Amino acid sequence: MQVSMASTQGGGAANEDTVLVSPTGVVVLDGLSAPKDLPMGCIHGTPWFVRQLGTCLLNLIGDNAVTLREALRTAISEVNDLHRDTCALDQEAVPASTVVMIRERGHDLDYLVLSDNVLVLDLGDEGIQTIVDKRVEEVAGEEMRAALQGPTGTAEHAARVSALVTVQRRLRNRSGGYWVAATDPAAADEAITGTVDLAQVRQAALLTDGASRLVDSFDALSWEQLLDLLRAEGPAALIARTREAELADPVGERWPRFKRSDDATAAYVRIGQPAPLSSEGKRLERGRRAGSSWGSGERADGHTAAVAPAPQDVAAALGIEPGDDVIRRTRIYRDRHGAVAHSTSWIQVEFAEAVPALLCGSHLVGGTSLDLIARETGRQAVKRTNKTTARIATTEDAQLLELQPGTNEAILVLSARFVDREGRPLEYGVDLGAPGRTRIETADMTCC
């Protein structure tokens, strides 16, 4: 998995969030703030607690034989052992934290959510799934409504928040209340857990409630738009946009909230290795070697075929006049992360009679278009000329690559021109690579 992350302090004295990452796991914690006027039975404080708990969790979930619930139960016990001799762990006033974590395990992705962190999973054709534990919002309703009354930043508002926390502490980790990671290992049994097929997951986001605000509190983004922002600009950009919204409503008049600005942590995860770009020539080589032009984890759909007038660049590549008839075949290559490339093959129209399948809007059977042409006419491609350029995606590029309108990202344009032994053009291919895709080339460096 590929992970990018960001965490910033809100209006408190310290950042009480933490995020930890391993090659197969991500853990995000949000420590529950303790108002200064309330007692605290731990001398170490909440930031220390979340760091210790997060470290224990990350170490434990590295063992695939340990379930995520078992890991959380053990981690709570291990952190208890670290400070039971110095702190009053039998009190209500002890550090506590929400938890969200994921783990790759073979062909599966395991997840656990405890309290109001949010896990967002992009499951491709099955849509976007959000997992969040909202039980904390179902208790202390009267105190919660009072604490949401503004203006934030006043002594009166702080007193109402303290009153809410006092009631919530009495309701933590007990039947009829809500559950968080604190000193009771049994809280792990109340976590929301699940497993999804890793092949279904394109991307994921693990968010503290300070980083999910733009969607679930401010209604400024959808979950899909939040994932798009994370993919295009990263977690720091999501938090920066959240801060802009908070500054635009400093006293909580538009968006009532407990804190003017909360700690915010976001981890964005791309599952698996995105498929690299392949030129038309590379796909031809792969097809001849392996029987398929698709790369590992790829598939293709959206096939079209028609006779169309040749654009100027196509006409120049095929040695015909602009506007002359030419076969235009298109398709889009995808992997679990979305579009890899939009591919167009421009083929001399004279081959339509010998190879009628070239005009069928479906996947070719029996090889690539050049393979079928060689088989039916004897004219085989013996030379190709590759060209790679980069440009900011045009409106048409964005439509073909299924990007959001107004996308301002760079794409690679790979072209390949194929000729036969007599130097006569056979085909001209153009691939538009989706933003963020890489092109990998290897060469034999063996000296003669």
* SSE order: EEEHHEEEEHHEEHHHEHEHEEHEHEE
Q: Which range does the strand content fall in?
A: 25-35%
Structural class label: alpha+beta
| General shape | elongated
Instruction: Report the total helices.
Output: 11
Query: Which stretches of 5+ consecutive residues score pLDDT under 50?
Result: none
In helices, the fraction of residues equals 25-40%
- What spatial order of strands do you see in the largest sheet? 11-12-13-16-15-14
Rounded mean pLDDT is 89
Number of strands: 16
Spatial gap, N to C terminus: 40 Å
Task: Please give the radius of gyration in angstroms.
Answer: 28 Å
- Biggest sheet features: 6 strands, antiparallel
Secondary-structure map:
Blueprint: E1 2-8, E2 17-21, E3 25-31, H1 46-60, H2 68-83, E4 97-105, E5 108-114, E6 118-122, E7 128-132, H3 141-147, H4 155-171, E8 192-197, E9 203-207, H5 213-216, H6 223-233, H7 235-248, E10 264-270, H8 280-290, E11 299-309, H9 312-318, E12 325-335, E13 338-348, H10 369-377, E14 383-392, H11 395-400, E15 410-419, E16 425-433
Antiparallel strand pairs: 1-10, 2-3, 3-4, 4-5, 5-8, 6-7, 6-9, 9-10, 11-12, 12-13, 13-16, 14-15, 15-16
Characterization of the model:
The protein has 448 residues and is α+β, with helices and mostly antiparallel strands. The chain is built from eleven helices and 16 strands. The strands form three sheets. Strands 11-12-13-16-15-14 form a six-stranded antiparallel β-sheet. Strands 1-10-9-6-7 form a five-stranded antiparallel β-sheet, covered by helices on one side. The chain has a five-stranded antiparallel β-sheet with strand order 2-3-4-5-8, covered by helices on one side. A hairpin with a 2-residue loop joins strand 4 and strand 5. Helix 1 crosses helix 2, helix 3 (141-147) runs antiparallel to helix 4 (155-171) and helix 6 (223-233) packs across helix 7 (235-248). The longest helix has 17 residues, at 155-171. It is elongated and about 90 Å long. The model has no long low-confidence stretch (mean pLDDT 89).
